[in-house]
């Protein structure tokens, strides 16, 4: 077909195309009729050939016409759906051939998408939606499987760690004490081969401290996979309380370490009454039916009892118990004096008498008598005593130091006469009012 004929057909409407098609068909039929009426012009073979050619042309045109009508129908459907979604009614009328031809192209994405959407509405959920649902179901199943596998793995590891794994194979004991490593391990109550996770650490620490009195504290640490470390701190004797011909050796935490016949090279404290077993009043009846009470036993609050004996129950005092205190807090007072003596370098043997808390005295190194007076300003008094002993007291010089006034220290020499009676000369006063003792920051 010539190019100008194609352009002309593009500008023609459907009706014009149809009329032209009808006119071409009539002309072809007329020509065939004329040829039939005039058999001289061409032979029969040519007529039959033309008939076949005309039939093939007409069939091709019919096919094209059918394809054109199908395309127009699909374009109208796509326009109708687009109008419904946008809220606008589709344009009525035949329209131009160019617009209908453009909208009816099979390669148009809008028509394909609209036809797919309409098909999905008519036929139900699309295959993509069904695929997504299947994927969600599969992911949910996989998540459940993973959770179950994780729970099973944790359970298996827990069972293995408390039965087969982490069994104790090595003991390590640190700290210098009077006990051997075997004694400390045995006192803990933990045996080799036990599980590190299942052992009771706090109970083992208590066992060590309660059974071995010269251990002040114990700490147990787990070292995976098979190591157990025991760290111990030794208990040091702080004071020896003299009572009833015995010496009760205690630590800084008031724990009874030993009951001995000797003070074991630590400060001796006198004037403290230890109540071994509280004694109740004994009521007796006389011949004249009068009642008397035996009150010779000291009252419970006048002596030192056990710290855990608040109900005054009869309890045996033995190694490892912790002392309480009396109503004057004499144990606490003795430990304060001992700490101050150590801080000021007074480390020789001495005895402390705290029977009367208003007249506290110290017999230092067997030849110096220190009179501290009351318990007020003990730190200042002991500081001045240390300065005087270091600067003014000679070795083996018998003297007394009066420190009842913390701001004024008085030194008096002591002489012995023939009758073994002491005679004190005129006092030699050594005052210390300028030098202030070091004070601890609050």
What does this structure look like?
This protein is of the alpha+beta class and 442 residues long. The protein has three domains: 3-84 and 96-123, no CATH class; 170-234, membrane protein fhac (Ubiquitin-like (UB roll)), CATH 3.10.20; 242-429, no CATH class. It contains ten helices and 16 strands. The chain has helices at 3-11, 14-37, 44-86, 97-103, 109-123, 127-163, 181-188, 201-211, 330-343, 378-391; strands spanning 170-174, 215-223, 227-234, 239-243, 246-250, 256-260, 268-270, 282-285, 291-294, 350-353, 360-364, 368-373, 399-405, 408-416, 422-424, 428-429. The strands form three sheets. Strands 4, 5, 6, 7, 10, 11, 12, 13, 14, 15 and 16 form an eleven-stranded mixed β-sheet that branches. Helix 2 runs antiparallel to helix 3 (44-86), helix 3 packs across helix 5 and helix 7 (181-188) packs across helix 8. The two termini are 117 Å apart.
In short:
This protein is of the alpha+beta class and 442 residues long. The protein is built from 10 helices and 16 strands.
SSE order and pairing:
Layout (H helix, E strand, L loop, with lengths): L2 H9 L2 H24 L6 H43 L10 H7 L5 H15 L3 H37 L6 E5 L6 H8 L12 H11 L3 E9 L3 E8 L4 E5 L2 E5 L5 E5 L7 E3 L11 E4 L5 E4 L35 H14 L6 E4 L6 E5 L3 E6 L4 H14 L7 E7 L2 E9 L5 E3 L3 E2 L13
Helix pairs in contact: 2-3, 3-5, 7-8
Features:
rod-shaped, 442 residues, 11-stranded mixed beta sheet, 16 strands, 3 domains, single chain, 41% helix, 19% strand, Ubiquitin-like (UB roll), alpha+beta
